[in-house]
Amino acid sequence: MRNAPCTYFTTLRPFLLHILLGVLACRPVIDPVGKDLLVELQTGGCFGYCPVIRLSVYTNGRMEYEGKQFAERQGKASFQLTYEEMRQLRRQLKKASVCKYPERIASEVVDAPWSTLTTTCRGQTKSVTGSIDRPRPLLDLENLLRNLAEVRGYQTRRGVPPSTDD
Question: Whose CA, among 2, 33, 117, 127, lies 20 to 30 Å from 42?
């Protein structure tokens, strides 16, 4: 009679394994970490202290900030956008229609910082790079992304000189 509990578990184990596999097989596939990029903004430098940053928004509403150079906050951080912010961003992204623009928009302004907006168009990644004289819908999308970060305390417009602590 001593082996009864072990025998019972040994008999029950294949049954439990089948149930577990069945539950996992029927579970919908979700991207829990939100690795599907919705839109990304990367900025470049200028002859002064223009902040070099990256703002990425994923389909689950997670926004990542990365301060690279001349940014008030250096390094990476992430935060969650609200439902309403995501709706606003999706509307602006549709309005901007990034897919219809060429990959590079020429500029006559020599010292203006450049920005690259990246999104997905018909299953393909599309990036548009330009400076301050890009079309208004692209500038509006960039401003919305910057505003979403700034509301949370991440300065995206004003650069800071490098530290002189020597």
Answer: 33
